[in-house]
Every structure is written in structure tokens, then in C-alpha cells.
Specification:
372 residues, mainly alpha, two-stranded antiparallel sheet, binds protoporphyrin IX containing FE
Length: 372
């Protein structure tokens, strides 16, 4: 209700409510979305590290709401998700701005502002995401070591000579039937450095868990690597922008002389989507076979619905979701291709240019008010 009400005001209120009220509505849309994300992550994280409860006659009874809500997984998973949302929004803005500049649209100068603001914010946010990802990895290692071992394709706690296996698999082909990797290319000591910040430490391999308590390995292993690669690339792009700014080359002319950089920023807009999908695939598959870690198996949480009802709901959900997705992208593409309305009524903030003036090159800091 809170979120939906303000979305209505934000989308349909422009020109009808005051600019301050519109800003207030926009802020509330962002704030309420964050609140929803927070409660979703509270529930999802509690299933990964179920603190503050005890199980009695098949029911989870809460002993401490504080411990249930602020469970260990939540404290790192929520910031990781929140930063992922900032990244997706900022790279979206950066990608569109870079496209307008790359295409040398007449309003390219105006898009330099949005490109600069988004990429400079990302120069802080993208590295922060890598830091939070590392912190979340260590939380998973502590509270669900089987999930971490699956994400890393890490089967054996010790090497054949009895020393701790500290190698991190850059790439491997996990073979779940054989309980090992068919091949692997690893970096010695890297796994201990990542999980324990130590040169040598013991990181539990999947062999420590009964086969029925092990998650699938292939999907989390590759999904995790795709997310990390996307996160690394996003960080490099943002830091590259910072470097260009530092060298005084982050100007309209400077960037138009570097079309490959602009193309890279346009391409970067899709990477946070890929990272978020693969992040959730990693998380949800690696926590199997548990729906509530160590307490309730996924097989015990199976719905009482009939198979037919399940299929109808599932197919319906997928079709509806795809329609919304395709519709939203069609709409976004149309708006972006069209660009800001150059014939729109404008209000200049400092010069008080009357409503109805046309935008010229000089009017860069204008607010565009759509005519319709
Ligand atoms: C490069 C560094 C990154 C590292 C080390 C990292 C690490 C992790 C880890 C350990 C998990 C938890 C998996 C589990 O619970 O089993 C995770 C989940 C996730 N990651 Fe990443 N990640 C990185 C980058 C990113 C980026 C760039 C995004 C999106 C823009 C992202 C989005 C997600 C999402 C949506 C989840 C599932 C929800 C959550 O756990 O918060 N990750 N990541």
C-alpha cells in the first residue's frame, strides 16, 4: 500500500503535484522498496541461519525476535542485496547516458551530468559490493559450510598428503556422481585467504557431509563465478571512469574520443541483472537440501497442492512474469530511443526562463516538463 500509493504519485503526479511533493513521493518509493527488500531478506536469511527459535511439535517457536530478525546471514546478505539494487539502478542510468553520448545526440552534454554522477557514485559502490560479497562468503562458510563448498567445487578438506587443501578452483568440472572434480585449475592458498583471511586454514570439503546432505554443485559453482566476474568487471569500469576523471579526460570531447569506453559502459548496464540472477541461483541452490538450515528439509516443505494446480500456477506465473518483463523492456527501449523531449516545456532553475521556452545547448541544468 505504502509503496504502491507513492509509485502512483511518482508516475502520474509530474506536473500535477509540486516538485517538492514529487521528490518526496520518489524518496518514499525508494524507501518503501528497501523496506520490502529488508523483510524478504530477513525471512530468506533466517532460513539460512535460523537463530532465535526452537522447534516444538513441528512448529518453530520464536524465543527472541531480535535474534530471529537480525540473524547472522541477514547482517551481510541484506547489505549485499541493497548494494546490488544501487548498482543496477546506477549502471542503468550510466548505460543510457553513455549511449546518448556515443550516438552524439544533441542533448549529449546534458547526459554528461548523469554519466558523471552515476559513475562517480559507482566508483565507491562497486568496490563496496566486492567487499560485501567477500563478507557474505565468510558468513556462508561459517553457517552453511556445505553451501560454500558447493559454490567453490571444494570436495576434499585435505590433500592426499594430509595437509589442508587451501586451493581455490578458478575453473573446474564438478562430477557429483564421483564426488570429485573431473578437472580443475586452482590457485594454491587462495581458498583459505578468501574464507579465513589466512595463508593456511581448514575449509571443510563436501566429503565431510553425507551425500543426502550435499547441495547440487555444478550450478552454484558456475553461477557464483559468473556473479563474481560481473562484479569484478563492474568495479573495473567504475574505477576506470574515476581514473579518466582524475586525468581530466572525463569530458564530452574526451569520451567521444574513446568510443570503446562508452560502448563498455553501455554493455555494463546488463551486468548487474546477470549478477543478481546468478546470485539468487547460487544462494537458493547451494542451500539445498534444506529449506530451514539443519532443521527442515525442502522435501518436508512440499506444498499440499495437486500437481495440476502446481503446474497451472507455475506456468501462469512464468507467462505473466515474462509478459511484464518484455513489456517493461519494450517501454524502456522506446523511451530511451526517443530521448528527452526536445520540444518540451522547460523551466530553468536559475534564470527563471518562462514555461514554454525551448531547450537550447545553453540550458543544461533545466528541468524538462513533458507537454502531455
Ligand atoms: C565480486 C564480488 C561478489 C562476491 C564475492 C559475491 C558473493 C556472494 C555470496 C557469497 C553470495 C551468497 C550465496 C549464498 O548465500 O549461498 C551472494 C549472493 C548474491 N549476490 Fe553476490 N557477490 C559478488 C558480486 C555481486 C554483484 C555485483 C551483484 C549484483 C549487482 C550480486 C548480487 C547477489 C545477489 C542478488 C545474491 C543473492 C541475495 C543475497 O545473498 O544477498 N553479487 N554473493
Amino acid at each position: 500500500m505504502y509503496e504502491a500509493g507513492f509509485i502512483g504519485l511518482m508516475v502520474f503526479g509530474w506536473g500535477k503535484i509540486s516538485k517538492k511533493m514529487h521528490l518526496f513521493a520518489t524518496f518514499n518509493v525508494a524507501f518503501s522498496s528497501m523496506l520490502s527488500a529488508m523483510w524478504i531478506l530477513v525471512a530468506n536469511s533466517w532460513m539460512q541461519s535460523p537463530t532465535g527459535v526452537h522447534l516444538e511439535n513441528g512448529l518453530f517457536l520464536v524465543d527472541s525476535w531480535k535474534d530471529a530478525i537480525l540473524n547472522p546471514n541477514f547482517l551481510t546478505a541484506f547489505p549485499h542485496m541493497a548494494i546490488a539494487s544501487f548498482e543496477i539502478g546506477l549502471f542503468f542510468v550510466a548505460g543510457i547516458s553513455a549511449w546518448m553520448i556515443y550516438k552524439k545526440r544533441p542533448n549529449a552534454k546534458m547526459f554528461m551530468k548523469t554519466l558523471t554522477a552515476s559513475l562517480m557514485a559507482l566508483a565507491v559502490i562497486a568496490p563496496l559490493q566486492v567487499y560485501m560479497g567477500d563478507a557474505l562468503g565468510r558468513t556462508v562458510a561459517e553457517h552453511d559450510p556445505a553451501a560454500l563448498a558447493a559454490m567453490e567445487g571444494h570436495w576434499h578438506t585435505y590433500n592426499a598428503d594430509g595437509t589442508p587443501n587451501t586451493s581455490w578452483n578458478v575453473i573446474a568440472w564438478p562430477n557429483e556422481a564421483k564426488g570429485t572434480n573431473d578437472f580443475q585449475i586452482g590457485i594454491p592458498h587462495m581458498l583459505s585467504l578468501l574464507e579465513d583471511h589466512k595463508w593456511v586454514s581448514t575449509v571443510k570439503g563436501l566429503e565431510e557431509f553425507k551425500p543426502e546432505d550435499r547441495p547440487p554443485v555444478l550450478l552454484p559453482f558456475y553461477a557464483f563465478r559468473i556473479m563474481v566476474a560481473a562484479g569484478g568487471l563492474l568495479m573495473i569500469i567504475a574505477l576506470w571512469a574515476l581514473y579518466l576523471k582524475y586525468r581530466g579526460q572525463f569530458t564530452l570531447e574526451g569520451l567521444q574520443r574513446r568510443p570503446w569506453f562508452l560502448r563498455l559502459v553501455v554493455f555494463s548496464a546488463i551486468l548487474p541483472y546477470i549478477a543478481i540472477w546468478t546470485g539468487w541461483w547460487t544462494r537458493e541452490v547451494a542451500r539445498q537440501p534444506w529449506i530451514v538450515h539443519g532443521l527442515m528439509r525442502t522435501s518436508e516443505g512440499v506444498s499440499q497442492m495437486s500437481i495440476t494446480a502446481e503446474i497451472v500456477w507455475f506456468v501462469g506465473f512464468v507467462v505473466f512474469d515474462l509478459l511484464v518483463w518484455v513489456g517493461a523492456w519494450y517501454f524502456f527501449a522506446k523511451v530511451v530511443r526517443h530521448g528527452p523531449d526536445m520540444q518540451a516545456e522547460v523551466v530553468h532553475q536559475s534564470e527563471n526562463i518562462p514555461v514554454g521556452s525551448l531547450m537550447t545547448d545553453k540550458h543544461e541544468s533545466i528541468l524538462i516538463r513533458p507537454t502531455a
